[in-house]
Amino acid sequence: MKRAGFTIIELMIASSILLIALASISIVYLSGERLMYSGINQADVQRKAQILGGNITRWIRPASSVTVMNNGDMLEIVVPLSIDPDSDVTRRIYYEDGGIYYDSDINDNNPAMQVAGNVYKTEDRVFRNIGDLVYVDFGIESVYLHGPSYPVETELKIKVRNTKD
Question: Residue 123's CB: how many other CB atoms inside 10 A?
């Protein structure tokens, strides 16, 4: 008399094959997810570095004078607002405690605003100037819960337009 159904060995073999298939699918899915998040993280850090570089360029370029201070961690920028030299505004961009700060007018009582965090020095100084060129060297690193963090190092060379000869 033949019995219908599966033996325990047949069930164990089928379960093992199913388990191996599910494990393979899970590995492929998790690898794809990790790759997706690392790409998102890298694009985000590059975007932040690009925005910060653009802002620094926009703040420095119209200056009539640029002075490097605090061993290269601060720039003092004089920006003419009109032909009258008494109406010039002095601004500061500086690196402090892993951030870049911007003070749009050092003579008002408003505090400087942090424009970027997770910033680090790539050289011994962030700011250097040689003649009418200002060199800015910094790195940005973002830390995320998903995937690795990607540091992006940036070097800007900005020509100051309105320097006095």
Answer: 15
Q: Evaluate if residue 96 carries a pLDDT over 80.
A: yes
Total domains in the chain come to 1
pLDDT number for residue 73: 92
What span, in angstroms and rounded, lies between the C-alpha atoms of 56 and 136?
A: 9
Nearest residue to 69 (alpha-carbon basis) of 57, 61, 77: 77
**DSSP type of residue 122:** S
Q: What's the whole-number average pLDDT of the chain?
A: 85
Helix or strand (DSSP H, E) at 117: none
Q: Is residue 104 part of a domain?
A: yes
Residue 145, in any domain of the structure: yes
Could you give the CA distance from residue 77 to residue 88 in angstroms, rounded to a whole number?
Answer: 10
Query: Residue 141 belongs to what domain range?
Result: 9-159
Is pTM beyond 0.85? Reply is: no
Residue 80: inside a domain: yes
Cα separation of 153 and 1, whole Å? Answer: 78
165 found inside a domain: no
